[in-house]
Design brief:
The chain has about 1000 residues and is mainly alpha-helical. Helices cover about 65% and strands about 0% of the residues.
């Protein structure tokens, strides 16, 4: 009884210790790498500096600072969980941010804590202690980051904070116990394993003695609440104690410590705390797995492990690579991997503490002597591994609906992936689901890849080999469900990891091979439909897969996905012009679907395409005039509102097209067309496929009604908003024809209006040619001549070069006769005679140039003059039109154009003019015209060369003598005018 009374004094409020020491469970989803929380706490403290300074030193001020410190600890621990999930480069950056954030918070908090401690007040002792405890935790977080000379001092500062609290309170009180736990954590972080184990063991011993006989005496004297508080304290100390013993290669003692916790938990049925209870369970399972070796204490502890206690989520217990299946099992003294099912030899015996555990979980004797161990079969190596799995299953059961913390789950995952515990598919599946629910996709995929050994067809998303059924075997219903569940989770992991192709293959395999599993087949159909929709490759294979996924979703999925799939399948049929089938598919879209109104309208579109215009018009009218104005049918959400807007745009277009068709056949009136379609462009400018069609039909209606101003306004909007639409081109062609009629009706003196019309027509031809499905030689030729007539040389050249590129072979004769000379003229008149000559050189060399082209070639080489209208850009007819007849009173003025005019070009021009004169009758108008061209070219050359000037003047005098002083002997008035102009210019 003395021993019993010695431990009875521990009936204290351990619940406060538990609450103070608990770590908030991490989020069930990965958090974005950020240290804004820790930095934010420091910034908040700095901002509150003035306010805090006005408060007297006391409990209120201390409590406020302690609350901020606690928030900083929670933020730091939440950030620490991201390290395992980040790639190496991102992890390094994240650690640097965490380190800076912690230092920022500590720089503000520690001076305040020292100030408060120096005040030595008594009324705020408890909040001051809590502040010191939080600062100790922050210092541990900072020291754990390492890679800095400051790390050792961080551990020392943490111990100083914990020691200060331990000195303020009596041994065994809640805050003193928490400080003891902190000091144990500090020793563990420093790698002082035995000292840390002693501190943890001391706390655990206070809670529940390791002497089984003593505990049997004490336990009946305690109330259930007292036992619950003792269990809570044991749960706080046990994970650190087990971890230290395992790290110190004392696996047998670690198993004994863990089995003490296990017995109390299973005997009294207490609820697990988070994360201490979870960490204890996973550390016990790890110790059991490591104890399978000669003598227990010589067990291989597995991969190198930080000695730090795993009691909080910040622990860095080795989990290996949680996303890998390549870890090896624990190795005994023989160096061979030990796996579940191995036969034991004297050198491969399990720890007596492990094997001695009896099946009766309610027996408080959690260990026995070696004789008892041998009696229950010390040579069976399966027992400790299977018992480790049993512990983890019980741990998962004890969590209820609460997901396991990241650190605990990671340790359990390591045991599974490294094959350190007995084969347990159910445990593997449950751990995989826990990782999946937490959003740890890599870890979940690794676990699902090895779980559920059933035939699956070898999905391409399985990372490694999957145990399968014997060839030809047919899986039963439960096996099929498990296989479908496994594949679905693997596919979802692949989707979340950015592997849509692998995810689509996995979902498709479920749909094709596991339709009997209706739930998973339905979810897989939804997933396949969703993922395939994100693949942007445009190949026939992918198009066929999209169609297959849509049909699967329509058949197997439920709710909005099935409705959306039905709508999309109808859309495919409509694109394929299978209008009757599409109409039936649209009719299958349920009214509750967001796409219902779109299906309504497209069903009427199918009627329109099938020629059932009356039915289509009734449906469109009902939708626009009834459904869209009925208050009770107002869309309930933004998605439905967007769908209605799209449906309305479609209905208004086809409603107008029906009226247009009837007006074209003289069965309707153009006013109805205009009323239905003219407002479309303003209402639905975002409908880039429909708006230009509606506007072009409205433009035609305006022209038919004689409202050219309205048509011109619509044309301007089409030019501005849809310059590349073929419907804009169709409207431009209608406007071109109308302007052509207007130009033909102009009086000769309306030159300004004629120019305006010509420019508008050129722009319309440009739009027609740019938007035409197939280029037209005649239309492009007309556009080039229009730009030439307007003196738009660059635009003309662009069109002419396009003509040559498109029709150089098929229209060779016309290209050589008209297009090349026009291109040469555009270059020459625009001040590029060398380029003009280069265009004509091949024709001249091949002997395929007409006399007019050869003459223009000579002019380009030597320069030429022609008469043009005042202010006009030049005469732009064919070369053989350059010498048209003149008449008295002609208003045209002479315009000079430079040629290449170097010595070689000038000589070549004279040769060409002489050859041309030899081909025409002497003393005829053409013969004198060629003499004028040669004389003018020589005179231009004479501006820089006196000898050429003298020769030109002598030639001009001979012509004067020959033709009279005013060249009156020339019958051609235009030619006589040229000679007189040149004589005046020369003198």
């Amino acid at each position: 009884m003395l021993r019993a009374s010695r431990f009875a004094v521990l009936a204290i409020a351990f619940a406060s210790v538990l609450c103070a020491a608990q770590d908030a469970p991490p989020s069930s989803r990965p958090r974005a790498p950020s240290t804004a929380g820790v930095v934010g706490v420091a910034a908040e403290l700095a901002a509150l500096g003035d306010e805090l300074s006005t408060l007297p030193t006391g409990a209120e001020r201390t409590r406020r600072v302690a609350d901020l410190a606690a928030r900083a600890v929670l933020e730091a621990r939440a950030d620490a969980q991201l390290d395992r999930r980040l790639a190496a480069e991102a992890r390094a950056t994240h650690v640097g941010r965490r380190r800076a954030a912690l230092e920022s918070a500590l720089a503000v908090l520690e001076p305040l804590a020292n100030e408060l401690a120096a005040a030595n007040a008594t009324d705020d002792l408890e909040p001051r202690a809590r502040l010191c405890l939080e600062l100790g935790e922050l210092r541990l977080e900072r020291g754990a980051l390492g890679d800095s000379p400051d790390s050792p001092s961080s551990f020392g500062a943490a111990d100083a904070h914990f020691a200060r609290v331990a000195g303020w309170f009596a041994e065994g009180t809640p805050l003193a116990l928490r400080a003891e736990l902190g000091r144990a954590e500090t020793l563990a972080a420093r790698g002082e394993l035995r000292e840390a184990a002693l501190r943890y063991a001391s706390i655990a011993e206070r809670a529940v003695p390791s002497d089984a006989e003593l505990w049997r005496e004490v336990a009946p004297t305690l109330t259930r609440d007292d036992r619950a508080r003792r269990f809570a304290l044991l749960e706080l100390a046990s994970p650190g104690l087990i971890a230290m013993l395992v790290a110190d290669r004392r696996a047998d003692e670690a198993c004994r410590a863990g089995l003490r916790w296990w017995s109390v938990w299973r005997t009294d049925g207490f609820a697990l705390s988070s994360p201490s209870g979870e960490n204890t369970a996973t550390e016990l399972a790890r110790a059991l797995a490591m104890a399978v070796a000669p003598g227990g204490s010589r067990a291989d502890p597995g991969s190198p492990r930080s000695p730090r206690s795993p009691r909080s989520p910040r622990s860095t217990g080795s989990t290996g690579s949680t996303g890998s299946t390549g870890s090896t099992g624990s190795t005994g003294s023989t160096g061979n991997p030990v796996t579940a099912g191995d036969s034991a030899s004297p050198a491969n015996q399990a720890s007596p503490a492990v094997i001695a555990w009896r099946d009766d979980e309610r027996d408080a004797a959690w260990f026995a002597d070696e004789a008892s161990a041998r009696a229950v079969g010390a040579t069976n190596l399966r027992a400790p591994r299977e018992f480790a799995a049993r512990v983890l299953r019980a741990w998962l059961d004890g969590l209820g609906e609460r997901p396991p913390t990241f650190a605990a789950r990671a340790r359990a995952t390591e045991l599974v992936l490294a094959e350190r515990i007995g084969a347990d598919p159910e445990l593997e599946r449950r751990l995989a689901r826990a990782a999946f629910d937490a959003g740890d996709w890599t870890e979940a995929r690794a676990l699902f890849a090895r779980a559920t050994p059933v035939a699956t067809g070898g999905s391409v998303i399985t990372p490694g080999a999957t145990p399968g059924a014997a060839p030809g075997s047919a899986p039963n219903a439960s096996t099929d469900v498990l296989a479908a569940e496994r594949l679905w989770h693997l596919a979802r992991c692949a989707e979340e990891l950015g592997e849509p192709r692998a995810a689509a293959d996995g979902f498709r395999e479920i749909v094709e091979r596991h339709r009997a599993s209706s739930t998973w087949a339905s979810r897989a159909a939804e997933g396949w439909y969703r993922v395939v929709g994100t693949l942007r490759l445009d190949t026939p294979e992918l198009g066929a897969e999209r169609d297959a996924a849509t049909r699967a979703a329509r058949e197997l999925a439920t709710g909005p996905v099935a409705a959306d799939a039905a709508y999309r399948d109808a859309q495919r049929l409509l694109r394929e012009k299978r209008y009757a089938e599409a109409r039936a598919a649209y009719a299958s879209v349920p009214e509750e679907a967001a796409t219902y109104e779109l299906a309504w309208v497209h069903r009427a579109v199918c009627d329109y395409q099938l020629g059932e215009l009356d039915a289509a018009e009734r449906a469109f009218g009902e939708f626009l005039d009834v459904r869209c104005v009925e208050p009770s049918l107002v869309p309930a959400d933004a998605e439905r509102a967007a769908r209605r807007s799209e449906a309305r745009a479609t209905a208004e277009l086809y409603h107008g097209l029906i009226a247009f068709g009837r007006a074209e056949r003289n069965q309707g009136d153009w006013l109805t067309v205009r009323r239905r379609l003219e407002p479309y462009l303003e209402r639905h400018a975002d409908q880039i496929a429909y708006a230009p069609l509606a506007a072009s039909r409205a433009l035609i209606a305006c022209l038919r009604l004689g409202d050219f101003a309205a048509a011109e306004r619509l044309e301007g909007e089409l030019f501005t908003q849809f310059p590349d639409s073929r419907w804009s081109g169709a409207a431009a062609l209608e406007m071109y024809r109308e302007r052509e009629k207007q130009r033909a009706a102009l009086a000769p003196e309306e030159t300004e209006r004629a120019t305006q019309l010509a420019r508008a027509m050129a722009r319309e031809l440009e739009l027609v040619n740019r938007t035409a499905p197939e280029p037209s030689f005649a239309n492009l030729r007309a556009e080039s001549r229009a730009w030439l007539a307007l003196g738009e040389w660059a635009r003309a050249r662009a069109v002419l070069e396009r003509l040559i590129a498109l029709f150089g072979a098929s229209e060779r004769a016309d290209i050589e006769k008209w297009v090349l000379p026009d291109l040469a003229r555009a270059w020459a008149v625009d001040g590029e005679p060398a380029r003009a000559a280069a265009v004509l050189d091949p024709l001249i060399a091949a002997g395929r140039a007409s006399p007019a082209v050869r003459r223009f070639h000579a002019q380009v080489l030597g320069g030429w003059c022609e008469f043009v209208e005042p202010g006009a850009p030049g005469k732009h007819g064919k070369p053989d039109e350059l010498d048209g007849p003149g008449a008295p009173g002609d208003r045209r003025e002479p315009a000079e154009f430079a040629g290449v005019e170097d010595a070689a070009s000038a000589a070549r021009a004279q040769e060409l003019f002489a050859a041309l004169r030899a081909e025409v009758p002497r003393f005829e108008a053409d013969w004198y015209g060629l003499r004028f061209d040669a004389l003018y070219a020589r005179w231009r050359r004479g501006r820089t060369e006196p000898s050429e000037r003298d020769a030109a003047l002598a030639e001009l005098q001979r012509l004067t003598d020959e033709l009279g002083g005013d060249f009156e002997r020339l019958a051609d008035f235009e030619l006589a005018r040229r000679f007189r102009w040149l004589r005046t210019l020369a003198h």
